[in-house]
Mitochondrial inner membrane protein Mpv17
Amino acid sequence: RPPEQAVLVTGALMGAGDVIAQQLVERRGLRGHHGSRTAKMMAIGFCFVGPVVGGWYRVLDQLIPGTTKVVAVKKMVLDQGGFAPCFLGCFLAITGAMNGLSVEENWSKIQQ
């Protein structure tokens, strides 16, 4: 898929995931739904998750070309061992900042 399409799909999926979380898990109902929270999640998907993850998978495909099982395992090890921890820290920092946490509060939450 073109990168632009992947970014749009990522934002839409993150927004849909937040709607599902608020309606089915938290049972907020339509009146209690936090639209701004959903919009923030979509923005993070459009501006951060989509471009970063899409770019990472392009780099990973260039670093380790091929389609064998061994190649898949190598990609998984690099992804989960190297990329995922860094990505998660950045994701949590961005989410915290968008939710108004101070730098100190955000760092404390990331350490937890």
Notes: The chain has a mean pLDDT of 94. Residues 69-98 form the longest helix (30 residues). The chain has five helices and no strands.
